[in-house]
Amino acid sequence: MKDSELRMIETMLKKQDELNSAIMKEFGLTTISKEQIDLATLDEIGEFTHELKGDWCWWKFTQEPKDPAKVFEEYIDVVHFALMYEIKFGSGCYQDEDIKWNYNKLKTDLGFGQAYAFSCVISLTRDDNVLAYVIALGLHLEYSIEDIYKEYIRKNEINKERLAKGY
Predict the structure, then answer these.
(1) Are 143 and 103 in contact (CB under 8 A)?
(2) How do residues 53-65 score in pLDDT, each as one tens digit?
(3) Pick from 55, 71, 97, 162: most CB atoms within 10 A?
């Protein structure tokens, strides 16, 4: 990983922390539990897989084809919660070696199927590798760290705007 890519990840962590603080202030929260983040992440993984339905939904004649832009946007929503998990409960497992290790784990997990690999995002909250695994998933989907960063920044701005408008 290049230094610039690590800086992109660190910038995303900073921006997510700022968004988290604004959300917590707006809603009068003092804490968000690990279980709440796990459930939010699971929900976003569900939305992500829903956008992939064009690839796997065999029983529906009216299923829309997969829209790569929507898939990417939903993947980025998963990234938001992986960043949040890292901020609240992580210990810096998003360095180059962490991402490489998780990329290899992801390849193994995909041998058991996409559903299994996607579910590992939640099971990895025990192992402190959530962010590295989610980034590895993005790399597997052929998104570069720079692609992930740019889309994250775009969606982070949308989320800040939504918060300001009472979403």
Answers:
(1) no
(2) 888 888 988 888 8
(3) 71
For residue 128, pLDDT beyond 90: no
pLDDT exceeds 70 at position 126: no
Identify the DSSP state of 81.
H
- Name, in order, each residue with C-beta under 8 angstroms of 148's C-beta and a sequence gap of 6 or more: 8, 12, 76, 79, 135, 138
Cα–Cα distance between 167 and 164 in angstroms, integer? 8
Q: Is 32 helix (H, G, I), strand (E, B) or coil?
A: coil
For 148, other C-beta atoms within 10 Å of its C-beta total: 23
Backbone φ, ψ for residue 23 (5° rounding)? -65, -45
The SS3 assignment for 2 reads coil
- 144, containing H or E segment: none
Average pLDDT score, the chain: 92
Which residue reads 């989320």 in tokens? Answer: 159
pLDDT at 57: 85
The residue whose two tokens read 């490489």 is 100
Percent of the chain's residues with pLDDT above 70: 98
